[in-house]
What we know:
Helices cover 38% and strands 22% of the residues. Strands 9-17-18-13-12-11-8-10 form an eight-stranded antiparallel β-sheet.
Amino acid sequence: xxxxxxxxxxxxLSETPFPAxxxxxxxDLIDALWLEQLYGFREHCxxxxxxxxxxxxxxxxxxxxxxxxxxxxxxxxxxxxxxxxAQEAPTLLTQDGQTRRLTAEDAVAHLQDAAWWRDKxxxxxxxxxxxxxxxGAMASTETAIVEALRQDDxxxxxxxxxxxxxxxxxxxLSRAKDWEGDDDVGRYLPNAMRPFSxxxxxxxxxxxxxxxxxxxxxxxxxxxxxxxxxxxQLNRAAQAMQLDDDSWLWMPVxxxxxxxxxxxxxxxxxxxxLLGSFGEASxxxxxxxxxxxxxxxxxxxxxxxxxxxxxxxxxxxxxxxNAVCASxxxxxxxxxxxxxxxxxxxCDETRWWAVNTxxxxxxxxGLIRDPGELAxxxxxxxxxxxxxxxxxxxxPVCLEDGSLPAFDYLAANIAxxxxxxxxxxxxxxxxxxxxxxxxxxxxxxxxGVMPExxxxxxxxxxxxxxxxxxxxxxxxxxxxxxxxxRKNGLAVPAYLIDRNTPNTLxxxxxxxLLAYFQTLAVEVNLYxxxxxxxxxxxxxxxxxxxxVRREITSLLEELAIxxxxxxxxxxxxxxxxxxxxxxxxxxxxxxxxFGTGMPSKMGNIANPLLAVGG
Length: 614
């Protein structure tokens, strides 16, 4: 699917200091370009002493061409990222001996016009402006989010909203949501801070794949998602239109998606009949995953043809089928390993429905090709009395005043009565979290399996001062290594895969599977947390990396695994000079057409655990 670019107007030039969210975006921009080494970025950078001010002792100069140079003031860092942008310092452009201040958006415009910048489509600035718009909108709700947390810190929706303040770590474009020219979408964004009404349609059951085949004529979606009053209103609407017999299934659909289908896919919309709006839901960071009002342990995932991170957020039936296969495999691992049974909990994502949008008479081919533009999934969370679920993506969120709300909440519970100072408590908590992430990741890899363990897919299950477990969701991204599964006596799940597109679900080498632990679980998830803590306590990031290495080393010493696999994992994690690194900017700029998978490719960086070895 091709997403047309729009000429988004840039805000007016400002002489005032950047808002905090603008500085954060520029920080993410520099970090991403440096880590990915986009277009040889580091060769065009020079870090030198600044004007001597206590908070801006260094200047990062980015040479654009023979005449122009961007300059950022801040502090030199030790670690994977070399530089911290100062909040109050302006971004400067030096051109032909003259210097002037730039807004964040003007700095990006000059950057993508650099002589060495290969992409000439303007896409980078386009997505940056969308990110800036969303970051500003979320920043304006920071106070409301914090106040809601203060009132009820046990509600998952509040933690989901908090995570939206940062979105994907180290990614300057992660907040960009391209709704294809529709500017009236504010009510569907997390910063609206209120639910919106769900649209409901009637569709003939013979056109629906998935759980509908076992519905027995009832209305499972309405029963699961609506309170009694809304359920009765929907029932009356269906009766009035004579759509209440057993041949019809009532399905929820995102209001924006229903509108989009009428414009872009009328042949699909024409198979369905709109019943009206019933029940309410609130968006999370992923937009298509919704918190159902009045059902704290039930989320609804809906198809949404919106471009986020270069991926269209629809729900192909093959993904939904694969998720069922994946969850069965994960459950088998839990049954075989008492530690995983206690510490790796799974959301139930087995109930899904998808309208057949492929006219093929051959079922397998139809499932492979179907883009899933009208589908839904009910996600149930494992709950117990006193349990609080916190997305790991919320942990590194830093507010404008420098506080880390999610970490503060957890540390306050864990530190109760210990007498530790705050730094000790925070790092002890990080060690416990790292041990949980490493424990799940490496135990799964030892069996030939790797969940996608970035911060949005994992939730901490906490009960008072106890971190009980990690909850996994979005099982459709479970990667497997078939040879390793067979070696461990495990059946290879029967994934449905489009062999005409790149496939990263099935990996023939264990080292390739391990790369997704290194990139997503460690370099994105744990690194975001340790970087935030290092900044908070004024210590080098090596302090956090040392904890990660300790937990990996400790687990490898006790993990029961084949000798050759153990040697490979130990060498790859602790001895190799280079680690894989998942690049996202270059693939986003290179892709002509967007599909359901986020564009990415593997690069490499220096092994962050090598410097803290010993």
